[in-house]
Amino acid sequence: MRLSGVRASRAALTLAALVASFLTTAPVGPASATPPTSHPPASHPPAVSAATADGFASVDALGQKGTTGGAGGAVVTATTSAQFLAYISRPEPLVVQVSGTITLPAGSRDGMHPVASDKTIVGLGSTARLTGGGLHIGLPASDAVTSPPADAVHNIIIRNLSFDGATDDLINVQMFSHHIWIDHNDFSDGDDGAVDIKRGSDFVTVSWNRFHDHDKTLLLGHDDDNAAQDRGRLRVTYHHNYFDASDQRNPRVRFAEPVHVYNNYYRDNSYGVASAMDAGVVLEGNYFHSVNNPARVDFSGDLGRLVARDNVLVECNHPVETRGSVVEPRTYYPYTPHRAAEVPAVVPAGAGVGKI
Question: For residues 85 and 115, what is the distance between their CA atoms, to the nearest angstrom?
């Protein structure tokens, strides 16, 4: 519902101030220069998330100091698809607030709409929603490009939005896009992937999201023949996500190393994590309840690698498969995980929209 008159002016000023406050960020240095983050004592759930990107999205790399999105740019509010699509395509840093439900048109891109660099896209309240289409982060696909181009899309934050009903992916990240933070969203009912990350994309964090009523959730790596773009890249952190009966690909990984999957809550899935094509996954502090295959390295294509620690399995049909060694995420950034036993309380209480 839109406000009018003085109430609208006061509401806009208040919301802009709140968004500006949690988007004020400082560059995050390497792990050796940054003290570890900390959580309150285990008996007291922590604040749902930091106001700045963590995990791989926080790493200084590729000429980008962490992930700051549209910080420093104007704050605008979109209530229609025309406004929203115009804002996310602008070249300058911009904080794009989404108010209410916006239906994205199918158009000529199968409902996928490009996001330009240096953007924060954030929902207002707990009812902001994008439906009917998805967000595309990245240049057009090309097998001929095998190293990051100078104009790769980068520095994007997407928070506090519900996504559903896309005719393709809900979010697609590709072609060496980097420094992307996808946090506190709700994903359901897309025709293909919920959040697909592929074709050389790098330094991404997917945190505190709820995935439900969806089949192919998280693809990481384009296909078995795409080593030229993907090997040595696709460094992604997945933490504190709620895989709430999302069926498979939570995530399904090729070539990437390291992929850090920690403190996620899996409930009623056909499989959790699949590591293939020599990918390297660190799986720690996750809670699997009623998951047929919690984690696999023998899946399709060449075997993957997986290191597992402090994971809890309840009513699962198969054990976690492990193989080989994997580069430790602490090589890149500091973190302090919850104990796996805390995850069923902490994650559902904090994941999804309306909780930032």
Answer: 8
Nearest to 182 by CA among 291, 55, 20: 55
Burial 296-335 (b: 16+ CB within 10 A, else e): bbebebebbbbbbeebbbeebeeebbbbeebbebeebbbb
Helices (H), 174-332: 227-230
pLDDT higher than threshold 80 for residue 201: yes
Closest CA to 199 of 125, 147, 247: 147
Token pair 């959040």 in the structure block, residue: 195
The confidence score (pLDDT) of residue 108 equals 66
308 touches 322 (CB < 8 A): yes
Q: How far is residue 106's CA from residue 110's CA, in Å, rounded to a whole number? A: 5
Region 251-272 average pLDDT = 98
Nearest to 160 by CA among 134, 189, 130: 130
Q: Which long-range contacts (CB under 8 A, 24 or more apart) does 316-324 make?
A: 316/288, 316/289, 316/290, 316/291, 316/292, 317/291, 317/292, 317/293, 318/292, 318/293, 318/294, 319/294, 320/283, 320/294, 320/295, 321/295, 321/296, 321/297, 322/297, 323/297, 324/280
DSSP secondary structure code for residue 255 in this structure: S
Instruction: Give the whole-angstrom CA distance, residue 30 versus residue 332.
Output: 6
Active site (catalytic) residues: 249
Distance CA 122, CA 99 (A): 9
Q: Look at residues 153, 117, 121, 152 and name the one whose alpha carbon lies nearest to residue 134.
A: 121
> What average pLDDT does range 114-143 have in this prediction?
97
Give the model confidence (pLDDT) of 37-96 as tens digits: 333 333 333 434 457 999 999 999 999 999 999 999 999 999 999 999 999 999 999 999
Q: Which residue has the tokens 């992930």?
A: 67
Q: How far is CA 157 from the centre of its chain?
A: 9
For residue 128, give both structure tokens.
Answer: 């902001």
Residue type, 74: A
Is omega for the bond preceding 148 within 30 degrees of 0, making it cis? Answer: no
Q: What is the pLDDT of residues 224-251, one digit of tens each?
A: 999 999 999 999 999 999 999 999 999 9
